[in-house]
Amino acid sequence: MGDEADQRKPEELHADLPEDLPPEERESRDYSAPFRIMGSRGSAISSPDMREDFDSVRPVARLMMGAAHADGEYTAEEQETVRGLLCQLLGRQDLPLELEAELAAFDPGRFDLGSAVDEFHEQSNTTSRRMMELVRKVCDADATVALAEDNYMLGLALALSLTPREYLDLVVEERGGINGPIKRVQDVMLSSAALLIAGLPMLCIALAIKLTSPGPVFFRQRRYGRGGIEVGVLKFRSMRVQEDGARVQQASKQDPRVTPLGRFLRRSSLDELPQLINVLRGEMSMIGPRPHAVAHNEQYRRQIHEYMLRHKVKPGITGWAQVNGWRGETNTMRKMVYRVEHDLYYIRNWSLWLDVKILFLTVFGRKVRQNAY
Length: 373
Fold this sequence. Notes:
By secondary structure, the protein is mainly alpha-helical. Helices cover 46% and strands 5% of the residues. Strands 1-2 form a two-stranded antiparallel ribbon. Strands 3-4 form a two-stranded parallel ribbon. Helix 12 (294-303) links the parallel strand 3 (285-287) and strand 4 (316-318). The protein is elongated and about 70 Å long.
């Protein structure tokens, strides 16, 4: 399956946009993304042919319930998502009592995916694709990424007779040994060597932070790691505030919260050096999708349909998105969509050579310095 993924780099799909196109116009342009990120094209529910009557929604409900129970746990978030999607499909505020009863009586032990899909064989591939998107939304309802849910999605795609191009953006197959021992050995060697080299500079930075502004040297922020598990990501403190709650404001240009020293640290990426400790602990990787604050994860996983697929691998200190210029503030949805596209490209096409290339571009590339403030 992995060999049939679209091998084009995300930036190659937008090469038709002129370099001097104003940012606001570039953001408003429609485009065809290889992974068809939902944030770039709206919800499947908005399509008129997905607003159905009660009888046609019942089999949809069974597929959603199968997805919700795929990992052996039916969470409150999944329950809320199933009910909300069904209400939108029916175009009403609450569910019919009969449908409520069917949801309550659902028995995952007796559920058979093949039989549940039989009613959809006469549907078009477009409708089947939209069905996959709805089911993916249920799988992403909580903040975890379960292998059982991905297996369910793959089984559903095959049962619906979809082609790989029609579902690969919804199911990510890990490429090679991206979560294997070779990648781990690489991380341990690189992080250990980097800590030895950067030890003295890190001590100097810590002293400078203490002397120039009140507060701790390190900022520890909760972010999601592989599988949606929370990780305390370390950074040198670069701001006067330490936000880690339900609302976290991203750093912006000329942000008054950033200290003078912090501005230099952020611009040069030196504030990220303590994350070498996270790598050594096995919580992060040297290269991978950049982790976001928990508050931002909760926001974007509801708005970008395939967002949580980033968590199939460990987050990284640097990544394919960052070396291609998609770093820093994501003040429009399109910017985050581009970032997720690049992250999924990296997961699908991982190799040691790609990691070497990203490390080289992190140090010597020009785009990695963009939007660093």
